[in-house]
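Hello again,

I reread your note about wanting to compare the complex against the isolated chains. To keep things tidy I'm splitting this into two emails, and this first one only covers the full assembly. Below are the input lines as submitted, including protein chains and any nucleic acid or small-molecule components. They are followed by the predicted structure of everything together. The single-chain runs will come separately.
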Amino acid sequence: MTTAEQPAGAASRGREHTRERLIDAAFDVFAEVGVGAASVEAIAERAGFTRGAFYSNFDSKVELFFAIADTKYAQAAAGLQAGVDPIFAAALPPGHPITAEVVEQIVTGVLRLTVTDMRWALFESEFEALALRDPEIARRFAGHSQRVAEDLAALLDGALTRIGVRFRVQAEQATRMLMTIFRSAVTTHLLAGGGPEIPPDRLADVTALALLLTERMPER
Amino acid sequence: MTTAEQPAGAASRGREHTRERLIDAAFDVFAEVGVGAASVEAIAERAGFTRGAFYSNFDSKVELFFAIADTKYAQAAAGLQAGVDPIFAAALPPGHPITAEVVEQIVTGVLRLTVTDMRWALFESEFEALALRDPEIARRFAGHSQRVAEDLAALLDGALTRIGVRFRVQAEQATRMLMTIFRSAVTTHLLAGGGPEIPPDRLADVTALALLLTERMPER
DNA sequence: CGAGTTCGATACAGACCTGTATCGAATGAC
DNA sequence: GTCATTCGATACAGGTCTGTATCGAACTCG
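Full-complex prediction:
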């Protein structure tokens, strides 16, 4: 399938490879200086090419931007699904009682999955900023955000149900709030010059909200 | 005092006036296209001047940006203090019982004061985006944010106390959470193409959180 | 009323940055 | 082995923005 679908003749061996390197390089550069300040030359150079390679693969910086978003959101969604079970195992060893701390661990653990990398937080914030001034970008941003929110709501609600805990409000609403507070905590951390790891005490608001939002399910 | 403190000689009658017009114009232009995309020429033209006037009053776009921030945050703080009493009167006519709705009205009313104008929301979001990549801007942003948060916490806590309601968590933490959720709601509203008014149903998360965060003070 | 100063307009030089057009090298097909 | 094609490098033209330098007008003070 990989080779069979190639259009026609010739040297497209490294084509996809070049695209990927440009996307990764742009992800870096966007995170560092922002989308507006990132020149095509800087991106190409970071990837080890010249501008010729860029314009041979993308029509404009905007198209590249969308390509990044599609790629990275897909990766994020995959990482989300894969990351839940380990969190569960760590927070709740067999026979461990259900405490408030377990709920906190699960909630913050799952939320952490949505921001694996500080570049990702910077990219999303950039994405939102651009969306505020361009309806087409806003449309795409809303689509991606909605998908993440839905995935996360299902995941969180499922995880809590497994330990006999439920949200006091609708799962979508609770998840939205938690995501918002969490993202704000990450931003605050970055603004304070924090490193790639988010220390637990930065998440005090998240844990407080998690406790307010949850309750034990009634036994029956 | 106005004229006496003028440095020395001559035609500085309209100097402050020019500065103000440049600041207001830049506020508009920044909100429309963003700080990065706003050229000095566009700002000057919007104010009815040429670039000469700009460079005569400011060293760079960054200095102008800081001038805007100082000016507008001061105005916002003043508006905050002035706006509370009317909200109180509207939410709680004499003899009106203390209901959950009163709490919602007061909380959302006070929060609305922090975003009088959609340009303000756009400016703050731009401020934050810039702060994420420039430590000096981050320092200023943190200072302004902290001040607003403190003012708001005192205001909200005071208002709730007056009606016999209190936060279940520290006032600063509760206020921070409410501000964050509120700002997120405003952003969502803007992303959806919403107009200058934020309809109440956009604030469902804010009101839900307000109820979770508050409780009646015990009688004594 | 005259002299000096300040403010804003205009002109200019330089730095990027974008997008296109052209060229050469590598590759795969026949 | 030859030929055609594709991909990336290089060169070029056009546009925009910044910051400075210079100039003229208005205003203030003596």
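For quick reference: Residues 9-13, 39-41, 51, 55, 60-61 of chain A lie near DNA strand C (CB under 10 Å from a C1').

B.
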